[in-house]
Amino acid sequence: MSAKTILITGANSGTGKAAAKQMVHHGHRVILACRNMEKAEAAQKEIGGNSRIAELDLASRRSVHAFTDWAHQEFEEIDVLINNAADFNLSKKEREMTSDGFERIWFTNHLAPVLLTDRLMDRIIASPQGRIINVSSKGLLARPFQTVEVEDPMFGKRPFTPAAAYYQSKLAQNIYTIWLAHQLSGTMATANCIRVTNVKLNMSRHPELPQWMKNLYTLKSLFSIAPEQMAETYAKVALDPDLKNISGALIDHPLKRVPFSAYAKDPLCIEQVMNLTYRQLGINPSISFEEAM
Ligand SMILES: NC(=O)c1ccc[n+]([C@@H]2O[C@H](COP(=O)([O-])OP(=O)(O)OC[C@H]3O[C@@H](n4cnc5c(N)ncnc54)[C@H](OP(=O)(O)O)[C@@H]3O)[C@@H](O)[C@H]2O)c1
After folding, report:
1. Is 293's pLDDT higher than 70?
2. pLDDT exceeds 80 at position 290
3. pLDDT at position 291, please?
4. Taking 60 as the threshold, does the pLDDT of residue 244 lie above it?
5. Is residue 256 within a helix (H) or strand (E), and if so which, with residue range?
6. 13 CA distance to ligand 1 middle (Å)
7. What is d(CA 79, CA 141) in angstroms, rounded to the nearest whole number?
8. pTM score
9. Residue 290 Cα, ligand 1 centroid: separation in angstroms?
Protein backbone atom coordinates (compact mmCIF):
# COMPACT_ATOMS: atom_id res chain seq x y z
CA MET A 1 0.00 0.00 0.00
CA SER A 2 1.40 3.43 -0.88
CA ALA A 3 1.99 5.86 1.98
CA LYS A 4 -1.09 7.90 2.85
CA THR A 5 -1.45 11.30 4.43
CA ILE A 6 -3.61 10.90 7.52
CA LEU A 7 -4.85 13.65 9.77
CA ILE A 8 -6.08 12.76 13.25
CA THR A 9 -7.56 15.30 15.66
CA GLY A 10 -6.84 14.83 19.37
CA ALA A 11 -3.99 12.43 18.56
CA ASN A 12 -1.93 13.22 21.66
CA SER A 13 -3.90 10.84 23.81
CA GLY A 14 -6.00 7.67 24.04
CA THR A 15 -7.32 6.03 20.88
CA GLY A 16 -6.18 8.87 18.60
CA LYS A 17 -2.57 8.47 19.73
CA ALA A 18 -2.70 4.68 19.51
CA ALA A 19 -4.15 4.90 15.99
CA ALA A 20 -1.44 7.38 14.96
CA LYS A 21 1.22 5.00 16.26
CA GLN A 22 -0.17 2.04 14.32
CA MET A 23 -0.49 3.97 11.08
CA VAL A 24 3.00 5.49 11.32
CA HIS A 25 4.31 2.01 12.01
CA HIS A 26 2.78 0.93 8.68
CA GLY A 27 4.69 3.67 6.86
CA HIS A 28 2.03 6.35 6.59
CA ARG A 29 2.46 10.06 7.21
CA VAL A 30 0.33 11.09 10.19
CA ILE A 31 -0.46 14.63 11.31
CA LEU A 32 -1.32 14.89 14.98
CA ALA A 33 -3.70 17.86 15.21
CA CYS A 34 -3.76 18.84 18.88
CA ARG A 35 -4.75 21.82 20.99
CA ASN A 36 -1.86 21.55 23.45
CA MET A 37 1.53 21.65 21.71
CA GLU A 38 3.45 20.43 24.75
CA LYS A 39 1.33 17.30 24.86
CA ALA A 40 1.54 17.02 21.07
CA GLU A 41 5.35 17.12 21.18
CA ALA A 42 5.45 14.45 23.87
CA ALA A 43 3.13 12.24 21.81
CA GLN A 44 5.14 12.79 18.65
CA LYS A 45 8.34 11.80 20.44
CA GLU A 46 6.67 8.58 21.48
CA ILE A 47 5.18 7.90 18.03
CA GLY A 48 8.22 8.95 15.97
CA GLY A 49 8.43 7.85 12.34
CA ASN A 50 6.69 10.01 9.78
CA SER A 51 4.54 11.94 12.23
CA ARG A 52 4.12 15.68 12.49
CA ILE A 53 2.29 17.92 14.88
CA ALA A 54 0.05 20.90 14.21
CA GLU A 55 -1.99 23.11 16.48
CA LEU A 56 -5.75 22.77 16.37
CA ASP A 57 -8.17 23.83 19.08
CA LEU A 58 -11.59 22.67 18.03
CA ALA A 59 -13.23 25.02 20.52
CA SER A 60 -12.04 27.96 18.44
CA ARG A 61 -13.23 28.87 15.00
CA ARG A 62 -10.11 30.93 14.41
CA SER A 63 -7.93 27.91 15.22
CA VAL A 64 -9.86 25.72 12.77
CA HIS A 65 -9.35 28.36 10.08
CA ALA A 66 -5.63 28.73 10.85
CA PHE A 67 -5.13 24.97 10.85
CA THR A 68 -6.95 24.42 7.54
CA ASP A 69 -5.03 27.32 5.93
CA TRP A 70 -1.81 25.62 7.04
CA ALA A 71 -2.97 22.20 5.80
CA HIS A 72 -3.84 23.68 2.40
CA GLN A 73 -0.31 24.98 2.05
CA GLU A 74 1.26 21.72 3.18
CA PHE A 75 -0.80 19.06 1.40
CA GLU A 76 -2.17 18.69 -2.10
CA GLU A 77 -4.14 15.65 -1.01
CA ILE A 78 -5.41 14.37 2.31
CA ASP A 79 -6.20 10.67 2.20
CA VAL A 80 -7.78 10.25 5.61
CA LEU A 81 -9.30 12.68 8.10
CA ILE A 82 -10.26 11.23 11.49
CA ASN A 83 -12.46 13.54 13.55
CA ASN A 84 -11.43 11.87 16.79
CA ALA A 85 -11.04 14.68 19.37
CA ALA A 86 -13.91 15.34 21.72
CA ASP A 87 -14.76 17.30 24.80
CA PHE A 88 -16.26 14.84 27.24
CA ASN A 89 -15.63 16.37 30.59
CA LEU A 90 -18.66 14.95 32.36
CA SER A 91 -17.91 16.88 35.55
CA LYS A 92 -19.03 20.23 34.11
CA LYS A 93 -21.76 21.75 36.24
CA GLU A 94 -22.71 24.53 33.90
CA ARG A 95 -22.52 25.06 30.20
CA GLU A 96 -19.37 26.81 29.04
CA MET A 97 -19.35 29.12 26.05
CA THR A 98 -16.51 29.42 23.55
CA SER A 99 -15.06 32.82 22.70
CA ASP A 100 -17.17 32.63 19.50
CA GLY A 101 -20.35 32.33 21.58
CA PHE A 102 -21.10 28.62 21.14
CA GLU A 103 -21.78 26.05 23.83
CA ARG A 104 -18.38 24.36 24.06
CA ILE A 105 -19.34 20.69 23.72
CA TRP A 106 -21.67 21.33 20.77
CA PHE A 107 -19.01 23.36 18.97
CA THR A 108 -16.00 21.13 19.75
CA ASN A 109 -17.67 17.80 19.04
CA HIS A 110 -20.01 18.67 16.20
CA LEU A 111 -19.76 22.13 14.60
CA ALA A 112 -15.96 22.23 14.52
CA PRO A 113 -15.53 18.78 12.91
CA VAL A 114 -18.05 19.81 10.24
CA LEU A 115 -16.19 23.10 9.67
CA LEU A 116 -12.83 21.34 9.59
CA THR A 117 -14.03 18.69 7.14
CA ASP A 118 -15.72 21.26 4.96
CA ARG A 119 -12.61 23.42 4.74
CA LEU A 120 -10.46 20.39 3.85
CA MET A 121 -12.97 18.90 1.42
CA ASP A 122 -11.08 19.90 -1.75
CA ARG A 123 -7.94 18.14 -0.46
CA ILE A 124 -9.89 15.02 0.53
CA ILE A 125 -11.66 14.88 -2.84
CA ALA A 126 -8.25 15.30 -4.53
CA SER A 127 -7.06 12.03 -2.97
CA PRO A 128 -7.59 8.94 -5.14
CA GLN A 129 -9.80 7.59 -2.35
CA GLY A 130 -10.30 10.08 0.45
CA ARG A 131 -11.83 8.81 3.66
CA ILE A 132 -13.57 10.90 6.31
CA ILE A 133 -14.06 9.16 9.63
CA ASN A 134 -16.26 10.63 12.33
CA VAL A 135 -16.29 9.29 15.85
CA SER A 136 -19.39 8.53 17.87
CA SER A 137 -20.16 6.64 21.06
CA LYS A 138 -21.67 3.29 21.86
CA GLY A 139 -23.08 4.99 24.96
CA LEU A 140 -25.86 6.32 22.73
CA LEU A 141 -27.40 2.84 22.94
CA ALA A 142 -28.22 3.57 26.57
CA ARG A 143 -30.02 6.79 25.53
CA PRO A 144 -32.67 5.61 23.06
CA PHE A 145 -34.61 8.88 23.41
CA GLN A 146 -31.63 11.14 22.77
CA THR A 147 -32.38 13.79 20.15
CA VAL A 148 -30.66 16.81 18.68
CA GLU A 149 -32.68 19.72 20.01
CA VAL A 150 -32.66 21.86 16.88
CA GLU A 151 -34.56 24.65 18.66
CA ASP A 152 -32.04 24.76 21.51
CA PRO A 153 -28.83 22.80 20.76
CA MET A 154 -26.78 24.99 23.10
CA PHE A 155 -28.92 24.67 26.22
CA GLY A 156 -29.99 28.31 26.29
CA LYS A 157 -33.52 27.47 27.49
CA ARG A 158 -33.24 23.97 28.96
CA PRO A 159 -31.18 22.64 31.85
CA PHE A 160 -27.61 21.76 30.89
CA THR A 161 -26.05 18.43 31.71
CA PRO A 162 -22.68 17.49 30.20
CA ALA A 163 -23.96 14.01 29.34
CA ALA A 164 -26.95 15.42 27.41
CA ALA A 165 -24.63 17.83 25.58
CA TYR A 166 -22.05 15.14 24.82
CA TYR A 167 -24.52 12.55 23.51
CA GLN A 168 -26.40 15.18 21.52
CA SER A 169 -23.10 16.08 19.82
CA LYS A 170 -22.30 12.42 19.09
CA LEU A 171 -25.78 11.83 17.67
CA ALA A 172 -25.28 14.87 15.47
CA GLN A 173 -22.03 13.29 14.20
CA ASN A 174 -23.98 10.15 13.26
CA ILE A 175 -26.47 12.27 11.34
CA TYR A 176 -23.66 14.25 9.70
CA THR A 177 -22.03 11.02 8.51
CA ILE A 178 -25.21 9.83 6.79
CA TRP A 179 -25.69 13.24 5.17
CA LEU A 180 -22.04 13.54 4.13
CA ALA A 181 -21.91 10.08 2.57
CA HIS A 182 -24.90 11.08 0.46
CA GLN A 183 -23.22 14.32 -0.62
CA LEU A 184 -20.08 12.40 -1.57
CA SER A 185 -21.85 9.68 -3.48
CA GLY A 186 -20.67 10.83 -6.92
CA THR A 187 -17.04 10.98 -5.83
CA MET A 188 -14.34 8.48 -4.83
CA ALA A 189 -14.41 9.80 -1.25
CA THR A 190 -16.26 8.09 1.58
CA ALA A 191 -17.60 9.08 5.00
CA ASN A 192 -18.10 6.62 7.83
CA CYS A 193 -18.57 6.83 11.57
CA ILE A 194 -16.84 4.69 14.19
CA ARG A 195 -18.93 3.86 17.23
CA VAL A 196 -16.35 3.82 19.99
CA THR A 197 -17.02 1.34 22.72
CA ASN A 198 -15.95 1.52 26.37
CA VAL A 199 -12.22 2.33 26.10
CA LYS A 200 -9.88 2.65 29.06
CA LEU A 201 -9.25 6.29 29.95
CA ASN A 202 -6.02 7.56 31.43
CA MET A 203 -7.38 8.93 34.72
CA SER A 204 -4.29 11.04 35.39
CA ARG A 205 -5.57 13.24 32.52
CA HIS A 206 -8.70 14.09 34.48
CA PRO A 207 -7.71 15.52 37.88
CA GLU A 208 -10.83 17.72 37.76
CA LEU A 209 -13.20 14.77 38.15
CA PRO A 210 -14.86 14.33 41.55
CA GLN A 211 -13.80 11.23 43.46
CA TRP A 212 -17.12 9.39 42.86
CA MET A 213 -16.65 9.79 39.10
CA LYS A 214 -13.05 8.56 39.32
CA ASN A 215 -14.34 5.50 41.18
CA LEU A 216 -16.99 4.96 38.53
CA TYR A 217 -14.39 5.15 35.74
CA THR A 218 -12.12 2.77 37.65
CA LEU A 219 -15.01 0.31 37.87
CA LYS A 220 -15.83 0.85 34.18
CA SER A 221 -12.22 0.19 33.25
CA LEU A 222 -12.69 -3.43 34.35
CA PHE A 223 -14.94 -3.81 31.31
CA SER A 224 -12.98 -1.55 28.95
CA ILE A 225 -10.80 -2.37 26.02
CA ALA A 226 -7.38 -0.75 25.58
CA PRO A 227 -7.02 2.26 23.26
CA GLU A 228 -4.65 0.11 21.16
CA GLN A 229 -7.48 -2.35 20.49
CA MET A 230 -9.94 0.37 19.51
CA ALA A 231 -7.23 1.90 17.32
CA GLU A 232 -7.12 -1.27 15.23
CA THR A 233 -10.65 -0.52 14.07
CA TYR A 234 -9.64 3.08 13.31
CA ALA A 235 -6.72 1.82 11.22
CA LYS A 236 -8.87 -0.64 9.28
CA VAL A 237 -11.62 1.87 8.53
CA ALA A 238 -8.93 4.33 7.45
CA LEU A 239 -6.83 2.03 5.31
CA ASP A 240 -8.34 -1.35 4.48
CA PRO A 241 -8.60 -1.53 0.67
CA ASP A 242 -11.63 -3.83 1.02
CA LEU A 243 -13.57 -0.94 2.55
CA LYS A 244 -13.02 1.50 -0.29
CA ASN A 245 -16.66 1.33 -1.39
CA ILE A 246 -18.16 1.45 2.09
CA SER A 247 -19.68 4.82 2.85
CA GLY A 248 -22.38 6.03 5.23
CA ALA A 249 -21.72 3.17 7.67
CA LEU A 250 -21.64 3.05 11.45
CA ILE A 251 -18.82 0.73 12.48
CA ASP A 252 -18.28 -0.79 15.89
CA HIS A 253 -15.22 -2.56 17.28
CA PRO A 254 -13.96 -4.97 15.98
CA LEU A 255 -14.90 -3.77 12.51
CA LYS A 256 -18.55 -4.69 12.82
CA ARG A 257 -21.15 -2.76 10.83
CA VAL A 258 -24.10 -1.77 13.04
CA PRO A 259 -27.30 0.14 12.26
CA PHE A 260 -27.83 3.83 12.88
CA SER A 261 -30.86 4.63 15.01
CA ALA A 262 -34.17 5.28 13.24
CA TYR A 263 -33.93 8.88 14.51
CA ALA A 264 -30.51 9.42 12.90
CA LYS A 265 -31.73 8.04 9.58
CA ASP A 266 -34.96 10.05 9.47
CA PRO A 267 -34.68 12.33 6.38
CA LEU A 268 -36.54 15.18 8.10
CA CYS A 269 -34.25 14.98 11.10
CA ILE A 270 -31.16 14.91 8.85
CA GLU A 271 -32.39 17.97 6.98
CA GLN A 272 -33.15 19.88 10.18
CA VAL A 273 -29.85 19.05 11.86
CA MET A 274 -27.73 19.83 8.82
CA ASN A 275 -29.62 23.06 8.11
CA LEU A 276 -29.02 24.08 11.72
CA THR A 277 -25.34 23.11 11.49
CA TYR A 278 -24.57 25.16 8.40
CA ARG A 279 -26.76 28.03 9.59
CA GLN A 280 -24.82 28.19 12.86
CA LEU A 281 -21.52 27.99 11.01
CA GLY A 282 -22.72 30.69 8.62
CA ILE A 283 -21.40 28.86 5.54
CA ASN A 284 -22.78 26.82 2.66
CA PRO A 285 -21.66 23.19 2.30
CA SER A 286 -18.53 22.97 0.15
CA ILE A 287 -19.90 19.94 -1.65
CA SER A 288 -23.48 19.21 -2.55
CA PHE A 289 -25.04 16.06 -3.90
CA GLU A 290 -25.99 17.73 -7.18
CA GLU A 291 -22.41 19.01 -7.68
CA ALA A 292 -20.90 15.64 -6.85
CA MET A 293 -23.05 13.98 -9.50
N1 LIG B 1 -12.98 6.41 26.09
C2 LIG B 1 -14.20 5.96 25.88
O3 LIG B 1 -14.70 5.06 26.61
C4 LIG B 1 -15.04 6.50 24.76
C5 LIG B 1 -16.34 6.00 24.61
C6 LIG B 1 -17.11 6.47 23.56
C7 LIG B 1 -16.59 7.39 22.67
N8 LIG B 1 -15.32 7.85 22.85
C9 LIG B 1 -14.80 8.81 21.87
O10 LIG B 1 -13.51 8.41 21.41
C11 LIG B 1 -12.77 9.53 20.99
C12 LIG B 1 -11.36 9.47 21.59
O13 LIG B 1 -11.45 9.58 22.99
P14 LIG B 1 -10.36 8.92 23.96
O15 LIG B 1 -11.00 7.80 24.65
O16 LIG B 1 -9.11 8.68 23.21
O17 LIG B 1 -10.17 10.11 25.03
P18 LIG B 1 -8.94 11.04 25.41
O19 LIG B 1 -7.74 10.21 25.67
O20 LIG B 1 -9.42 11.93 26.51
O21 LIG B 1 -8.70 11.89 24.08
C22 LIG B 1 -9.49 12.98 23.73
C23 LIG B 1 -8.65 13.87 22.84
O24 LIG B 1 -9.47 14.98 22.40
C25 LIG B 1 -8.69 16.16 22.57
N26 LIG B 1 -9.50 17.36 22.68
C27 LIG B 1 -10.46 17.67 23.58
N28 LIG B 1 -10.93 18.91 23.34
C29 LIG B 1 -10.26 19.39 22.27
C30 LIG B 1 -10.26 20.61 21.56
N31 LIG B 1 -11.05 21.63 21.92
N32 LIG B 1 -9.45 20.76 20.49
C33 LIG B 1 -8.62 19.76 20.11
N34 LIG B 1 -8.54 18.59 20.76
C35 LIG B 1 -9.35 18.40 21.83
C36 LIG B 1 -7.90 15.92 23.85
O37 LIG B 1 -6.84 16.84 23.95
P38 LIG B 1 -6.15 17.22 25.39
O39 LIG B 1 -5.17 16.13 25.67
O40 LIG B 1 -5.53 18.55 25.13
O41 LIG B 1 -7.26 17.24 26.40
C42 LIG B 1 -7.44 14.49 23.58
O43 LIG B 1 -6.34 14.49 22.72
C44 LIG B 1 -13.60 10.76 21.41
O45 LIG B 1 -14.32 11.23 20.29
C46 LIG B 1 -14.58 10.21 22.43
O47 LIG B 1 -15.77 10.95 22.50
C48 LIG B 1 -14.52 7.43 23.87
Report:
1. no
2. no
3. 52
4. yes
5. strand 256-258
6. 7
7. 31
8. 0.98
9. 34
